[in-house]
Design brief:
CATH architecture: 2-Layer Sandwich
Radius of gyration: 15 Å
Strand order of the largest sheet: 1-2-4-3
Number of domains: 1
Largest sheet: 4 strands, mixed
Order of helices and strands: HEHEHEEHEEHH
Number of strands: 6
Helix content: 25-40%
CATH topology: Beta Polymerase, domain 2
Number of helices: 6
Length: about 160
Amino acid sequence: MSMNKDFKEFLELLNYHKVKYVIVGAHAVTAHSRPRSTGDLDVLIEASKENAKKIVAALTDFGFDSLKLKVEDFCKTGFVIQLGYEPNRIDILTSVTGVEWKEIWENKINDVLGSSEIPVFFIGKEQLIKNKMAAGRELDIKDAERLIKFKSKGENP
């Protein structure tokens, strides 16, 4: 799958600034099973002051300093910022339903997104299933069922 240039630049900046993040949502479902269409890239970040400083720096370098986002915005759970429009939208979240950051970070998967060859972190399969089940939308339940059926990369069949 070809990578949108904005997604690529954004992920490179997250890595450059050493932001603690994991990719969640449809791109994570794809990483753990098979491709699913989506209109955005969902990125979960750790809601801490140190990490918030890093994400604000990355967003400034990405050209979104005009939004006047503050470190405090990214320190509280439940914060969501959407950059751009589908199909190239980037959603940055400070929490997800059904699973805590600590568990997510301890079980993250190192991989690459699509054909980008950019190293990224994905939410672990079990944590993604918990998140999708807790979210409870019809699409999320279907994603969870798909994840349960497929083996993750590196697992023995």
